[in-house]
Amino acid sequence: MGHREQLMAGAKRCLEERGFARTTSRDIAAAANAPLGTINYHYGSKERLLNAALLETLDEWSEKVRSGSAEPAAGSGAGARVESMWARVVESETTDRPLLVASAEALAQAERSAEVRQQLAEAFERARTTLAADLHGIEGAEDGEVARAVGSVHMALIAGLTQQWLVDPERAPLAREVATGLRRIAQALESDS
Predict the structure, then answer these.
(1) I need a surface site. Which of 33, 96, 127, 141 has the fewest CB within 10 A?
(2) What is the pLDDT of residues 14-24, one digit of tens each?
(3) Selection from 96, 108, 113 nearest residue 15 by Cα
C-alpha cells in the first residue's frame, strides 16, 4: 500500500477516534505511518484529505444502510423496503456513532469552507436519486423531479433521525415508529388531495 492509500486509511481511523474537528495533520501521519509532508503532496491539505476520507466513509455507510443483509423478502413492496432500510439506519446510530459525530462536525465546517460545502452538496445530490431508485424504483432519468423529491424526503429524515439519536438515544424513534409516522403522514396528505 502506497502513502496515498495509507493516508486515506489513517484519516478514516482518525475520524473515528478523534473526530473531524480534533484531528491534526500529525495525527493522520502517525495513524498512516507516513511522513507528514505526504499529506500535502497527495491531497493538497489536511482538510482535503479529511473531506475525502469522510465522503468515502459516508458513501460506505450509505451503501451499508441501503443494502444490508436484513433485506425484506423478494417481491416485498416499498413499505417493507423502506422499513428495512430505516431499521439499518437506526442500528447504525449505535454501531457507527463516531462516524455520524464526525459527519455532524463536517457539516459545521461547511459553513466556512466552500470546498467542503460543495463536496457535501454533491454527495447529497447523488444520495437523493439513489435512495429514490433503491427504495421506490423511481429512476432519475424517467422522472427526475419526483426522484429528487422522494430522495430529498429520505435525506431529511436521515439527518433528523441522526440528530435525535446523537442527542437523545434513549428516546429517539425506532424504525417501526418512523415507518408508522410516514404512513400516517402519507394518509393525511392523500386525504387532502
Answers:
(1) 141
(2) 999 998 889 99
(3) 96
